[in-house]
Amino acid sequence: MSQLLVKDEVELQSLIKQFLKSISEKITGATSGEAAQEILLHLEETDKNFYSYEFVRYLRQHIESSLGAAVEEEMLNLTLGEGQHGTGSGHDALINVVACRNKDSAEYQQMMQTLKTSLSSVVECLTNKYKESQLRKEETHREREHSQHSSHFTDSCSDSDSSFNQSYTFITQEELQLLAERLEPGKPKEMRREALHVLCRASLPDLLSCESWSTLRRNLSLALNEAELSEEALQFFAKSFSCSPLNVTREMFASLAKNVESSFVSHKLNFPSGSATLDINTPKITRLLKQMRLINDFQKEVASFWIRHPEKYMEDVIESSLSLLSFHHPHGSAEKPLEPIHLLTLLDIKADWFIKWMHGYYSRNVVLRLLERKYKLLVVVAVQQCIHYSEASEGFRGDVSDALAGKQKNASALQSSVYSGKELDFALFVHSVCVLGKLILYANGRKLFPIRIRKHKEPVTLTDLLVILINIMYHHPKPLPSDASHTDPLSPSGLVLELLWMLCEQPDCAAECLHQTAVMEKLLAPVVALLSGQQSTLDSPATTLILIADVLARIANTDRGLALFLYEKNVVGPQGERACTAHIIAQFTLRLLGNGLPSLSGSAVSHSVCGAFIFVCWQMYNTCEGLQVLEPYGLHKAIAAAWRKTSSLPERISEASPETSLHEMPNELIWEETLLDSLLSFAATPRGLLLLQQTGALTQCISYMFSRSTKKLQVSRCEKFGYGVMVTQVATTAPGTVALRDSGFIQELLVQLWSALECGSDDAQLAAPKPTSMDPIDRSCLKPFLSLVNLLSSSQSVWELLHQQPLPNKSEYSLREMPTSIPDLIDRLIAVNSDVKIHSLFHYEQSHTFGLRLLNVLCCSLDSFLLLENQYNICSMLLQSQRDNITDSDINEGEIIVDGLSVERNHVLVRVGVVGGPSERRLPLRSLQEGDQPYPWPMVLSYPVPHFYTLDPPETLHTSQSCEMSAFLTSSKESDENWLKKCQNLFLKAMTSEPHNLTGNVLADLLESVVVHLSNSATECLFSLDQHRAAVKDVKNVELSSVEQLGVDICLKYGSYLKVLGGDARNPLILLLKQIKSFLSKQRRNASSGLLTQQESYPGHDWLASTVFLLMGGDLERSLGLLLRLSSLLASAFIWPARMHACVHLPEEVAGSGIPPVYWCTAHYVEMLLKAELPLVHSAFRMSGFTPSQMCLHWLTQCFWNYLDWSEICLYLCACVLFSPDYQVYLCVAIFRHLQPDILQRTQSQELQIFLKENPIEGFRMSDHLEFMLGLERSYRKDVLTAMKGFLEP
User: What is the pTM of this model?
Assistant: First the structure.
């Protein structure tokens, strides 16, 4: 094998190449040649694939063929001669002896000589081929470099990346010293180029440890300025940025930045003016662009890792960058010079480098500090460019942005290498807007303003800058794209709009920048001009107005922006007066809806503009405070009229298919849905829901909402919580509940519930079964459960869904049969009183527990309980189920089985069987305890409920002569002018110092005296009652309904517990209720709607009349006299729900709406005050999908029975009559303030509705919150009481 054949040599070359490629990762990690040799020597120990390499196999085969026979012969001799065995340590010794003897043999020496000769020949051949290949590559690269004149700079700049793919060459210190000398500027070009080639392939650790490194770095920087050497030098810089330590990277970056700056100084490049252009393929520009490209790439990359390094490193990099970009030629030059910032804008037009630097506080703090102290010129240039672009906007109109965007996208086009002066100016403008937009987002960035600009007398403030940018948006309008993929990234209007969006999202920033008078006037200038009848001077008025509306909507979507629009007169109106923004927008929207602007021709254009401004109004009128301001404009009527007109058009009949996208739908259909959506948003507030109901479009709006919710479509681009709150708001009222039922919403909810409760997940794998839930209601069923609670929270809703609706009580139920209505649900889950019903449920205990929990929540409303008890005998059914759960047939002898269902039934029976506040009754827990008695609560097997659940009433102190209130009422005359004021002062004094003296007798006398005093005042007497007094005595034909009879039993039970009624109180109470019913019936309008609640008398029991009867100690005459006089006062409209039911004193459309004033007035203002005074509580309700108005209606309808103690209920009545009914609002807000910790906690556990309904208001005392309520009166009485007094004309 002394001479290799050609075939063998080629094969061996291939094996060596393959071997080197396989271990290249290990070799490239070596820091020197000696280290690489050490790695090769220990490769067998470190590489588990060592024996898999073909080259290693070739060597083993060669050794086997050369020494195999000699080794076997030697082992045979030793084994026979010495008698050793091939195991254990003897085997190892045998191998060592054989190896030593063969190393000294002639065969071994010949084999080594052959391998050395063969491998040396192959390695020499490979080395020669490698050198030839490198020379060819260099020649080809030079030829390609000279021939590439039409390619775009973004392609040719990528050469710097090629250095990462070069192989390493290990160089000694002497060779590095020689390379540093060869790079000296005086050396021949070829010698310097060859030195650069070697450096680019050298190991960086070797270079950095070289003593000549400083000389090398200086010579490398000099080579950047030479056309023949700049390419290779730039490759070395790129390599150093990725592989060098921090100090070297920082030095190299600073050297590159200084070199670029010096190049601009020496070349004196001129900015193209007129018809002149900038060709980026010229050698000078190409070289500068490549260097700027490398700088920009490093700027964007370094932000991802500099936080791991000392701040000094980051500060030096940032300062080098800002120094380069702040470079500015002296003003003495006649022509405008080309500067580094111009080339950077071509490379990174949207300033991604700056955006990344400003992202984190770590770097943002340094950037802002350096800009303020040393490089403010960079900000000055950006502001100057925006001013220049705005002033010369007429010259820039056209397709400058389109042309530049086309060049950015189509880099291979020939014309993309040539840029005009306008294009460069526009690129700098885009870059400046992006920089300024990010800068003013932060407080320290805004502190850089005002900016002094050359040739401008006054400094440019933040407000001035925003006005300039808005003016640019006006001159270059482009419509908002419906599809993000079709956006123009360089559109001036799009850039400004994006900046304004960012400002809107930051409250502090928006207040400082956008909420200024000059900015708002500039935004609304086109709107005011059109309202004034002026001809629009805008190029595209419709597009501009849509952009304006988008900004206004985003401002109004924030609390500060909404307050700005509603209350600050910061805009000059059409008649020259100062006006609030909300009024201007509302007037303009009405003009658009009425087609009062002929300049906006075309239905599609007019609809787009009108829809955009309706959405701005939407952001205002879907809040309580916004609706209060905008209601006088009657937007709901105008929108409803436009909807009716559109829905009747023949073009609208050809509706799109379900698969049709929004962009393919007919314009009229889109416009109709826009109007319906806008009407629907009125339902976000109680008063808005009344306005929506009056338009007659409630049913259509609810159907539209249901169709969108089933498709999982977003409510709007500014809404985050879906339709939950809106559904709850609608379900609070009778007409809303009917609309939900007719739309299919309730049926769909029941299907979802049944699927989660009874069906479960069909595709669950047996290998991973679902864990058994330990909660009474499984988490999968919690959402439908809460939705049902929200739906059935109001007694009026329950009445509409259940009144005169019998339970099916079928003899047979199919397993696949689902309930489709609320009576069906009650029949299947609550009234489970037969084996047929039990066997029809797959999960009987879980499903029945769900039903009993739902029943418990329903029974929290006294009127709902009375209806359920009257129609379905709920109590009898539950008691029978409890008795059926006894172990012995003899009830007295057997013991009841304590299980989950019996515990739930016991809780419901106690809740409905005992009346009282938190200190007056005890409700059993629904959980078992450890110990001998897991359930210590007595089981209810029959009525009355065990005394255990009734707490002893608090002792009532007898009124002493020292009670000032009692003495005042006895001695004073009600005709005194200051009598009411004195009475109020005494009441406040007693509440703060002696609340225990305000006993039932004192409060009864107080209430009676105040009502008499007010009813004798012509200014306080709101309703004339003389014509109806005769109806009081005419009770022959008046009968109490069975629901009212059940209510009488509850009242007598409560009065007996309070010891205020005697045993003969039933007949007086019944007579009182009949007299009041007769009196109110004469003031009731005839039903004109199909609502069940409007067909008969007041649906439910008159809890206010019963409360007055108890307060008067069962005295019929006093109670009747007080109620008759009270009915003439304003307070009766709010504290007495039965008083205003379908009342003739209300407008006909309001009386027939089925929505009581206590909801659309009292509850409306409770929500408004909560948002202002208790924002956390307001947010908690919104997140839970529940509404404060729903809970207020619940409390106030039953006069706080079961929620407050009797003494607090009496104080509530006295306060509302004595201080005016707005105290009803303040009391509800005070209660929510008292419950705030619990509300926040229960919201997190998703049980807010359950908590508020099932639990009394523990620990609430009006005297403790009196100061808070007085503060609310001082702040809000003007608005709240004015609205209450004007409720007759809502």
Answer: 0.81
